[in-house]
Amino acid sequence: MTIPVREATQARHYAEPPQITGEAGSRTWLTRGANFVVAVSQVTPGARLERADNPDEYFLLLPPDLSATVEAGGETIEAAGDSVTILPPGRSAITARTAGYLARVFSREAQDLMARAGNADRYADGAPEVAPLEPWPEPVGGYRIRHYRLADYELGASAAMPSKLFRSRSLMVNMFESTDQPRDTAKLSPHWHDDFEQASVLLQGTYKHHLRYPWVPNMAEWRDDDHGEYGAPSTLIIPARVIHTSRKINYGPAVFIDIFSPPRLDFSMRPGVVLNADEYPMPAGA
Hints:
By secondary structure, this protein is mainly beta. It has two helices and 20 strands. Strands 2-3-4-11-6-9-12 form a seven-stranded antiparallel β-sheet. InterPro entries: RmlC-like_jellyroll (IPR014710), RmlC_Cupin_sf (IPR011051). Residues 1-20 are annotated as: Disordered.
């Protein structure tokens, strides 16, 4: 039986109402894939984002102009802007120190957030085309806050667009290096993923995402190519088997992030690509 190709979720948060409004005026948009949910929040100083008992780790992604206090696992740290933080399971809180947009990334274990996502109805079928999430081994030294200032790391040994990759047991984030120029249209990288999705999150800047859906036997189900323009903040969920490439079209900075779940084995097998690989072992036999 041929599994239909899922339609991409194109969430332009700046044009949509949030799923959650906080007491301090924070606004949060939730967009899910089969194995993860992305929470993009607009915050002001003092805004507090809490999880009473999150079942597993999650990521906090801060752009350069936004800092926050992070409390989790009995620890408290000051998370600098332009950083990646992994929070341990259990109770946690993030208090914004400056205003702006931030992103948190949760695995499918955060069922309350998955259910509230703006596109939750698109996954009523369980997404049979996506490989199931099986968490990788526990981190070296156990669960704790892990904070990574991007300025402390050299660019990973990845191709196409310079970036810095980090992984947890269930998630992988790819933080792209910002440039002041639009992407060279002679150096794009169209590709697809056989059995996993990709979320592309934009917290600053303007991008075009180019999507091409594969043909299926029934011509009535064919979809036209999509060349949508996205401002910030926005989230695109790219389904498995959809050919895609993205390009920055603005001059000036941008904050652009790709997200995968489970962590990509192909990236993880390449030395120097995943910058915290020594903290998160790969599965046995990988």
